[in-house]
Design a protein that fits this description.
284 residues, Endolytic murein transglycosylase, two-stranded antiparallel ribbon, 11 helices, 9% strand, mainly alpha, 3 domains
Length: 284
């Protein structure tokens, strides 16, 4: 019945649920088992605890109707990297951090920025493979719905560019109100063929909470180093909120090319380098 001790049961009729379970490689007989379930009861939608012992089909069908799995809440915040999410998941569910990475790499080419930042209610007993597929299935539906709502269709290349920009905005902006302004700086610098020169792009992967130093700027040769390379990084740097995605798609119209943190923790934006230097002097 699979390597997880839990199974997901979707909403729907008994026939639809049986079809779904067969598609997920559960050993059921659609024409026979739908009649058995009418006597046992309708399966509960959500996560069901089936344990890992070998079950007869009858026992399995009974558990689908009666055995709700205990859930744990895991919150994945915007601006965080999947590496730290996997640490959370490994500790909370006694899973292998390395196996989570392996299953993720097998399931999707997206390095980061794909898993949706929100609170998940995850069943105790889920395997690494099933957990990754659960997170990615939710992410695929989420991103498709957001982009279809805005553009009418989902274009993967366009989506990836916007998610990369949104991830930089997520790392750099002090609050939601600043996001369209940070977005404008990114687009303005790209149009002028200027390097982005943003610390946030170096807070990727395992470096999510690592202070960006002059030495790091000199030595990191990856595409994430926007002090060294022009253009956008090849991949998103973190998870992104819907507000960051909207800011990436709808930047504010400005002439800003620079911003620097001020005493209040937000940023001062400027159009030229002289004003930027003055903002730096007055910022702290």
């Amino acid at each position: 019945m699979g390597s997880s001790s839990v199974a997901f049961v979707p909403q729907g009729s008994i026939a639809q649920i049986i079809t779904y379970m067969v598609d997920k490689n559960f050993d059921l007989h659609p024409e026979v088992d739908k009649y058995l379930l009418r006597f046992i009861g309708k399966p509960q939608a959500g996560w069901v605890n089936i344990n890992k012992e070998v079950l007869t089909r009858g026992d399995f069908l009974y558990k689908l109707c009666t055995a709700k799995a205990p859930l744990k809440a895991i919150t994945y915040i915007p601006g965080e990297t999947k590496e730290l999410l996997f640490v959370q998941l490994a500790l909370a569910f006694e899973l292998s951090y390395e196996k989570l990475h392996e299953e993720y790499a097998l399931a999707t080419p997206y390095v980061d920025g794909f898993i949706v930042p929100e609170t998940y209610y995850i069943p105790v007993g889920i395997s690494e493979k099933h957990l990754i597929h659960f997170l990615l299935a939710h992410a695929k539906a989420y991103h498709k719905a957001v982009f279809e709502k805005i553009f009418g269709e989902f274009n993967e290349a366009k989506w990836q560019k916007f998610i990369i920009i949104a991830s930089i905005i997520q790392k750099e902006a002090a609050n939601v109100e600043e996001m369209p302004l940070v977005s404008s700086v990114i687009y303005n610098r790209l149009k002028k063929d200027m390097k982005l020169q943003m610390d946030g792009t170096l807070n990727y992967g395992e470096y999510s909470h690592t202070k960006v130093t002059p030495q790091r700027i000199r030595e990191d040769t990856s595409s994430y180093n926007t002090y060294m390379h022009k253009g956008l990084p090849q991949n998103p740097i973190c998870s992104v909120s819907k507000e960051a995605i909207f800011a990436a798609i709808f930047p504010k119209t400005t002439n800003y090319l620079y911003f620097v943190k001020n005493k209040s923790g937000t940023h001062n934006f400027s159009q030229n380098y002289e004003t930027h230097l003055e903002n730096i002097r007055n910022g702290f």
